[in-house]
Amino acid sequence: MASMSKELPLPYPDGWAAVAFGSDLGAGKVIRARFMDEDVVLFRTRGGAAQAVTPYCPHLGAHLGYGGRVVGERLVCPFHGFAFDRTGVCVATGYGKRPPRARLGTWETTETNGLVFVWYSAQGLPPQWDVPPALLESFPYAMQCSRLLATHPQDTVENGIDLGHFRYIHGLTGVEEIESFSSDGHRARYVLAGAKGFLPGLLLRMEISTRLWGLGLNVVDTYFPQFGITLRSLVTRTATGPHQVQLRARVGVRPDAGGKSFPPASRRFRSLAALLTAAARPAFTSQLALDVPVWAHKSYIPHPPLAQGDGPITLYRRWARQFYSAAQPVGAAAVERKSSRDQ
Ligand code: FES
Ligand SMILES: [Fe+2]
Question: Scanning 176, 194, 218, 221, which has its CA 20 to 30 A from the CA of 333?
Answer without folding.
Answer: 218
